[in-house]
Amino acid sequence: MSDHAAAATETGIALATKAAPPVTISLATVAGYQVSELVLWATLIYTTLLIGHKLVQIYKDISGNVTKSIDKSE
Predict the structure, then answer these.
(1) pLDDT for the residue 24
(2) What is the Cα–Cα distance from 25 to 13, expressed in whole angstroms?
(3) Which domain holds residue 66?
(4) Under a CB-based contact definition with an 8 Å cutoff, are residues 6 and 12 in contact?
(5) Does the reported pTM lie above 0.85?
């Protein structure tokens, strides 16, 4: 793939990414959903993902510290 084709693909992907939220909201509104409901659900999903991500970080940190403390005691 040439550099020009890669840049064009990247630009197309960037455009699609930037257009996705407004298009999604517009289509959902046409489908009968209120914007407040969409914001509520998006916030709930985002918060759940953040909590899950933080729990994974805490687990990795704890399991890494246990391994390090076992290695130091030997």
Answers:
(1) 83
(2) 19
(3) 34-74
(4) no
(5) no
